[in-house]
Design goal:
By secondary structure, the chain is an alpha+beta fold. α4 packs across α5 and α7 packs antiparallel against α13. It has a single domain, classed as Orthogonal Bundle (Cytochrome-c3 Hydrogenase, chain B), CATH 1.10.645.10. Helices cover 42% and strands 19% of the residues. It is globular. The structure holds magnesium ion and nickel (II) ion.
């Protein structure tokens, strides 16, 4: 057996959930492989078996404290198809607003709270100051903007859903309560400020980006497929539509795919070293079927956003590369463009004449024994698939989450960063920061398959062929 050494980074800080990164070196000290391990498992798919299907949305929302709204929506849509109903138009619009409010708050959390310290203070910054407090000290406006933007999204979720964490307002057949004129008006009052913040933050990110040319080229920049949901006119959507795959040249590989038939085009592989499955584009097999989802992928598959300011930004974004935008570093900018789109779009929906309609729920008994619901969650396409018995009890459920779909791309990205920045046996905080930063670019939501909270200590180990520790640095 060839001699190899392993660097272990455990656990990764400033992402949600429990995880570990290992970098495998060959005898020459060259990077041979990199793995992103998710080390906890919660088994949601199993323990909902036997539950009444109507409980699924609120049950499934508990998978994640970060993106409960996405699970709520995908789950309710799966239930809609069990009922075989078309939900009332006002409910459809309200669900869209709800989903986009979550995209704003989740993207703000990712960019401002988790990634802006790297961008503002640099990849070699002292980890003790590389956090939102460090940002607050250096550029108070930016930190305050991030907090305000997140609050904007959270307040919409609270107004619509009643409570911020695990709201159960989205139900099979629609939503439980209509929008009140007071809530509509106060949301509309808050949109101009959110819009101004999004514009300001984009200007900041474009200036900041210039200092990261090396990272942009080496942090997850590689050809892959991209997958996302688009409207009939090719526009960006978070709620429904058909699925498109494009390749690295931004050529359409497959179009008009029905998300309800995800199993025709998505394969999943289980690895012994992680609870997170690796999804791939089935027709090409796991070796060539690597694809990315989430903000970068959505902008690569879409022909337009569909709102004026976001479309302007998208046109500029396209100029990075003549092909698809391949650098995962650009997930950050894609996030801000999506925030801009969501604020513009939810403002449009809130001024629709029917938005206060009191008919917001279609009532029915189950009319089908199987249903699939899909939605574009902040991190990418989310699928919920249920089968029920004649009593309406869940017999089978399958979830495909965004983080699993980015798993192959995250592994490849970590390997690329390690190839560029790991030098022999030397472990530096700068290298460690970059490995973590590239993972954070994907904003993995490990809460969706794990459950963890709070700040975690960080450890990186260099292991010899016998598993002996050659070097070790720790962060507290
Ligand atoms: Mg599954
Ligand atoms: Ni989540």
């Amino acid at each position: 057996m060839a001699e190899r050494r392993t660097i272990v980074i455990d656990p990764v800080t400033r992402i949600e959930g429990h995880s570990k990164i290992t970098i495998h070196l060959d005898a020459q000290g060259r990077v041979e492989d990199a793995r992103f391990h998710v080390t906890q498992f919660r088994g949601f798919e199993k323990f909902c078996e036997g539950r009444p299907f109507a409980e699924m949305p609120s049950l499934m929302a508990r998978i994640c404290g970060i993106c409960p709204v996405s699970h709520l929506i995908a789950s309710a849509k799966a239930c809609d198809s069990l009922l075989a109903v078309t939900i009332p138009p006002a409910a459809d619009r309200l669900r869209r607003i709800f989903g986009m409010a979550q995209v704003v708050q989740s993207h703000a959390l990712s960019l401002f709270y988790l990634s802006s310290p790297d961008l503002l203070l640099g990849m070699d910054a002292d980890p003790r100051t590389s956090n939102l407090f460090g940002v607050l000290e250096r550029e108070p406006q930016l930190a305050r903007d991030g907090i305000a933007l997140r609050k904007f999204g959270q307040q919409i979720i609270e107004r619509l859903g009643g409570k911020r964490i695990h709201p159960a307002w989205v139900v099979p057949g629609g939503v439980s309560d209509p929008l009140t004129p007071q809530d509509r008006d106060s949301i509309l009052q808050s949109t101009p400020e959110a819009l101004a913040i999004a514009v300001r933050s984009l200007a900041w990110l474009k200036r900041t980006r210039e200092g990261f040319r090396d990272e942009i080229a080496s942090m997850g920049s590689f050809p892959s497929l991209f997958m996302g949901t688009i409207k009939e006119d090719g526009g960006l959507t978070f709620y429904d539509g058909k699925i498109r795959f494009v390749d690295a040249e931004r050529q359409v590989v497959s179009d008009g795919l029905d998300p309800k038939r995800y199993f025709d085009f998505l394969g999943e592989q289980v690895e012994s070293w992680s609870y997170l499955k690796s999804a791939y584009y089935k027709p090409r097999g796991i070796a060539d079927g690597i694809y990315r989802v989430g903000p970068l992928a959505r902008l690569n598959v879409s022909e337009r956003c569909g709102t004026p300011r976001a479309d302007q930004e998208l046109a500029e974004f396209r100029e990075f590369e003549r092909t698809a935008v391949l650098g995962s570093f650009h997930y950050h900018q894609a996030r801000l463009i999506e925030i801009l789109y969501c604020v513009e779009r939810l403002e449009q929906l809130l001024t629709h004449p029917d938005i206060l309609d009191r008919h917001v729920r279609a009532l029915a008994r189950p009319n089908a024994l199987e249903g699939v619901g899909a939605a574009e969650a902040p991190r990418g396409t989310l699928f919920h698939h249920y089968k029920i018995d004649e009593q309406g009890l869940i017999r089978y459920s399958n979830l495909i989450i965004a983080t699993g779909q980015n798993n192959l791309a995250m592994n490849r990205s970590v390997r690329q960063v390690a190839e560029r920045y790991v030098r022999g046996n030397r472990l530096t905080h700068g290298m460690l920061n970059r490995v973590e930063a590239v993972i954070r670019a994907y904003d993995p939501c490990l809460s969706c398959s794990t459950h963890a909270a709070g700040q975690m200590a960080l450890k990186i180990q260099l292991l010899g062929p016998e598993g002996d520790v050659l070097d070790e640095i720790a962060r507290s």
